Amino acid sequence: MTGDEVDVARRTAAAMERADAAGRGAGVRLLDVGPGRARVAMTVEARHVNGHGICHGGYLFLLADAALAYASNSHGTSAVASGADIAFLRPVALGAELVAEAVERAMTGRSGLYDVTVRDGDAAVAEFRGRTRQVPGLAPPS
User: Fold this and answer.
1) Domain membership of residue 103 as a residue range
2) 45 near 55, Cβ under 8 Å?
3) Thioesterase domain: which residues (predicted)?
């Protein structure tokens, strides 16, 4: 990994962060990004809790998807999710500090495969696998 690759990842992530109203509205925070990887966080607040008193799975998916987005766009070419699935491993309580870490597993042509682990401290609470497609004609965030 070169300094130029890291710089591209950081500049792209900064532009995405400025433009991401959905993530900002949900309280997603970018912690770290590099070529093919990203870490984001979210504190579980009352607005994230479902009728069972635990974090709604949709917010866990959103957090994992945000990590996927930063990781898959880190190469400087616009990429969008083409599919994803998630396994919820354990309930998440109000006040939990969640961290989602995305790692690129494969990049073939314009298609990428990413694994994202969502953790509450040391405990994995969800595992997410996302597939992406680079879309060169899509304007990159600026």
Assistant:
1) 3-134
2) no
3) 52-124
